[in-house]
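Thread: quick sanity check before group meeting

JM: Hey all, I'm pulling together slides for Thursday and realized we never actually wrote out the predicted structure for the chain we discussed last week. Dropping the sequence here so it's in one place. If anyone has concerns about the input, flag it before I start.
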Amino acid sequence: MVLIDRLFLALAVAAGAIAGLVMALTFADVLGRYVFNSPIRGAFELTEMAMGLLVFGALPLVTLRREHVVDAILFDRMPGAVRRVLAVAFDLLGAAVCGLMAWRMWLYGDRLVRFGEVTMELRIPKGMVCMAMAVLVGLAAFAFLLAAWNAARGRSLRVGVQEDM
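JM (edit): ok, ran it. Output follows.
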């Protein structure tokens, strides 16, 4: 489990680095556009792809640590056994949805690779980016399965919180 935690943490750190790079790229592009009348070529394409990688890169760790935005008004008032059943059910549903998304994204990325689809300005292969996102969503599906396993075993539903289940 330690290896998985480190892998997911590394993905989240990479997502944070991508966010910093997107911020720097946007700043430089705006500066170049309005001060020097020379925007950065392909900045929109890079930002577009980076945002997808950022979201999907952080998703596995967020999922495993149960740091999604939740409405806990009712959930916190339910008995422990009900919370456990609901947590397992929703984690399994999340795993199924992410697994389906990963599968479909992989097929779409493969089709883009076979047809040689590239971005307009920088000629970056779209299929490879799509397939990378598919792998990240697949890791999120795996994280949902791990979270369901933890919930079924009565482990804390939130990181750092001891709960009676």
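AS: nice. The chain has a mean pLDDT of 88. Residues 2-152 form one domain.
JM: adding both to the slides.
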